[in-house]
Amino acid sequence: MVIATLTIRKRTMMKFKTPLLAIAALSLLSACQDGGVETGSAPQNSLTTSQLPIWVSQIDSDTMIGTPKIVDCTLSGGAKTECVSFTLKPQPASFEIGPWCPRNISDGPDASGIWLNDGKVYDADGQFIQNLASFYGDDNWQLFDPATGKINVTDTQLSCEAAARPDVDPAYQNHCVECQISYLPDGTSLTYVIPLTPELAPNISSRVDHGGVGVTFSGARLDASAPLEAILSAYTIAAFDDCGGHINPNVGYHIHAVTEADCLINVKSESDHAPQIGVAMDGYALHRRFNSDGQDPADLDVCRGHATESLAYHYHANDPGANAILPCHTGQTGCALDEDGVCDASASVRRGPPPGAGGGRPPRPEGRRP
């Protein structure tokens, strides 16, 4: 059996555009951290509706629709508070998305995306597709024409929608599932409602809910775990691109694994600490996985969060092979809305302890709010 292993490829079509506001924000970041308030306590200087957190200005302005605003919201744990509401396009403007599915078993990694299995990341190239029956030990896998090497790909809107649903149309079993942004209706967007000041969750959920993990500064949605078991049960592969993302007809482009590919806008926080790449749905900062020494921080809690002497409580992205950017949120989460509505995240959240955590939750985050 030949197993395709991950090859990190440098993207040649990058077109990062750092927002002007982000430049100013960087100079203010240290002052914000020094003058913040302790997590979980009443703010020393209450925010007004004319003030927005610095992280808002770090989101790529070319992906933003309209102007962020402060709104009333109800968080997943029932807390009624103020949130930042902002709307993003269904595709980040700062990098080229794709490719996903190879078209022939002769296609190499540069024409293909990646796949996750048992904690590892693989190039989903032609060779990988060719060897799926051996890889999964099941002869029912047959995604390509043995005579021509052509791979079955959902390359139309109809086939995408039929294969991307939970009950995969039997006609599209043994396909590499790929959708395009062009299949989404014009004007598609998502509005994110994230707390101004994080509120500790009364219980830590055993999963990340439908609102997702958070948002990157590139404007890409960070989503909950991909339903790999359901995908594989239909003999399909819903390949991710090198950035760990793919498209579905409901939310557009979204990321399931933060890889080492150079896709995300980074904001340096301190010389040896992993850079910040975005914000989680509970308002805490989200950083890359590794510090400059190439290691995970040693003191991460069950949700992969911690605080340092110079940084407020924040998260570090998980190993991309884990299929869980974050295992859970420490704070109460806001909403991801398909229209500009009122956020009540408490309406649909199911609570429970994380697996193996014995019903506990991470230690109360010390330090200051982001």
Strand residue content = 15-25%
Order of strands in the sheet with most strands: 10-11-8-7-12-13-15-14
Describe the global form: globular
Q: How does the major sheet shape up?
A: 8 strands, mixed
What is the helix content? 10-25%
Q: SSE string, helix = H, strand = E?
A: HHEEEEHHHEEEEHEEEEEEEE
Number of strands: 16
Count up the helices.
6
Helix-strand category: alpha+beta
Instruction: Look at the structure and give the mean pLDDT.
Output: 84
Give the C-alpha Rg. Answer: 21 Å
Distance between the termini: 48 Å
Low-confidence stretches: 1-5, 8-49, 350-370
What does this protein look like?
An eight-stranded mixed β-sheet has the order 10-11-8-7-12-13-15-14. The protein has helices at residues 20-34, 54-57, 126-130, 132-136, 157-164, 228-233, and strands spanning 64-74, 80-88, 113-117, 120-124, 175-176, 190-195, 214-216, 221-222, 236-237, 245-248, 252-255, 276-280, 285-287, 305-306, 314-316, 335-337. It is α+β, with helices and mostly antiparallel strands and 370 residues long. A hairpin with a 4-residue loop joins strand 7 (214-216) and strand 8. The relative contact order is 0.19. The chain has six helices and 16 strands. The N and C termini lie far apart (48 Å). Helix content is 12%, strand content 19%. Mean pLDDT is 84; it is low at 1-5, 8-49 and 350-370.
